[in-house]
């Protein structure tokens, strides 16, 4: 049985763009064939895609570094470099994605929902792209854009119609093994279940998914016992089933529902309003409490997962509650937060030098072959057009000062 993992921190790195080619057409009797350098290919992106065949984040927990392929370089005769293939990473439906600052950027709620986690760099243009009436033989080409890289935190919230909630050893695992094909580990000691189990239940022509949430304790919303690590899985359940252990001897089982509801409300106030059913389990061994339970919770359904008593009644009640919840609440819809990643132009001191920050100037510098005089002159004109020279002068930069843009260093020469 594979390990259940519902949290992972991953590093995603897209592929860099391929370099454009600076070449000229060579053919007998055509000494001036002209520039024919092709473009570099775009780098591959890293894409997270929800897929029902995946049930855990175990693979990403073990191998957190995910990289996409680089784009191929351009070549002569206007040959374009190959595009780097995207790296598709399959994750479970219900995966939540946060950036490094803890900002929610995607909720991959359903199969097929996807997020471009790191976008591939654009391929550099070959010198054939830069011909004009005034520049008929450009000797330069662009370099490919660098790859995008960042850390993300993934959190899985199980997609289930019914969430079984109860104290440890309340009979949740036994029930889910009785009503579905799931075969969780079962034993007579607390915390038998250390990870959620899912089971598909069929009632007549309909079916629904039941999740066995590991046992909760008072203070679970503060992290006690298995704590809030599994409480988040309850958020996805359309219906909650509160399990009362009629055989409990270390507490009054009649208080179980109130205690469990209080824990859920403390974790997420919306859970207090979630449709629910109350299930008195192990009635074959705890029949002495039956009269008290029926007085305190007249709507409770009494069952025995061992003998099968009350199981049909419970399933019909669950199916009706799920049907009503589905009608009242639309299916979860995927969410992707489209963030503008372009950083505005900024000039600041960095030691004895000036640091120019900004997506556009950093990108154009990275794409320039600084050892090519024609390309360097073109870069200077583009930086002036972007307002970099004006920003440096406003900040107090003087001729001869050291200027840093990305990985490159320049001397400030206005004009």
- Number of spatially distinct domains: 3
| Weakly predicted, low-confidence segments | 189-194, 219-227
In the CATH hierarchy, the third-tier topology of the largest domain is known as Rossmann fold
What is the H level of CATH, i.e. the homologous superfamily of the largest domain?
Answer: P-loop containing nucleotide triphosphate hydrolases
Structural class: alpha/beta
Count of discrete alpha- or pi-helical segments spanning 4 or more residues: 9
In N-to-C order, the SSE pattern is EEHEEEEEEEHEEHEHEHEHEEEHHHEE
Report the β-strand fraction as a percent range.
15-25%
Name the CATH class of the largest domain.
Alpha Beta
* Secondary structure: number of strands: 19
Largest sheet: 6 strands, mixed
What average pLDDT do the residues reach? 85
From the structure above, extract its key features.
single chain; 415 residues; alpha/beta; Spo0b-associated Gtp-binding Protein, Chain: A; Rossmann fold; GMP Synthetase, Chain A, domain 3; 3 domains; six-stranded mixed beta sheet; 9 helices; 21% helix; 23% strand; elongated
Task: Tell me what you see in this structure.
- By secondary structure, the protein is of the alpha/beta class.
- It has 3 domains: 1-156, Spo0b-associated Gtp-binding Protein, Chain: A; 162-328, P-loop containing nucleotide triphosphate hydrolases (Rossmann fold, 3-Layer(aba) Sandwich); 346-411, GMP Synthetase, Chain A, domain 3.
- Helix content is 21%, strand content 23%.
- It is built from 9 helices and 19 strands.
- It has helices at residues 58-62, 172-179, 228-234, 256-267, 290-296, 311-328, 359-366, 373-386, 388-395; strands at 7-13, 46-50, 65-67, 87-91, 95-98, 104-108, 114-118, 149-156, 162-166, 197-203, 206-212, 239-245, 276-281, 301-302, 335-336, 346-350, 353-357, 402-405, 408-411.
- The strands form 4 sheets. It has a 6-stranded mixed sheet with strand order 3-1-8-5-6-15. It has a 6-stranded mixed sheet with strand order 10-11-9-12-13-14, sandwiched between helices. The protein has a 4-stranded mixed sheet with strand order 16-17-18-19.
- Helix 7 (359-366) packs antiparallel against helix 8 (373-386).
- The radius of gyration is 31 Å and the shape is elongated.
- The model is unreliable at 189-194 and 219-227 (pLDDT under 50).
